[in-house]
Amino acid sequence: MAFQIIDTCINCGRCPKYCPVEAITAGDDIFEIDPDICVECEGYYDTQQCAVVCPVEACIKL
Ligand code: SF4
Ligand code: SF4
What we know:
The termini are close together. It contains 1 helix and 4 strands. The strands form 2 sheets. Strands 1-4 form a two-stranded antiparallel ribbon. Strands 2-3 form a two-stranded antiparallel sheet. The chain has a single domain, classed as Alpha-Beta Plaits. It is mainly beta. It is 8% helix and 16% strand. The radius of gyration is 10 Å and the shape is globular. Residues 5, 9-15, 31, 53-54, 56, 58-59 line the site of one iron/sulfur cluster (SF4).
C-alpha cells in the first residue's frame, strides 16, 4: 500500500511538507516516497495529499 513518484517529477519540493507521515524525501534525481512509510494518507485525509498538491501529477498509485 503506497504511492510512488514517477519521473515526470520536476523537483518543485512541494509534496514532502504535506505528507502526514513524512514518507517523502529528495532522492538523487527526483523526490521519492518510502513505500514502507506511506500509508496512502489513510487515517489522516480522504485523498492522498501528495497527489493533490503535485502540479504535474507525478504522485500516483502504481
Ligand atoms: S499518499 Fe499520503 S502518506 Fe503516502 S506519500 Fe503521499 S502524502 Fe504521504
Ligand atoms: S509535488 Fe510533484 S513535482 Fe513537486 S517534488 Fe513532489 S512529486 Fe515532484
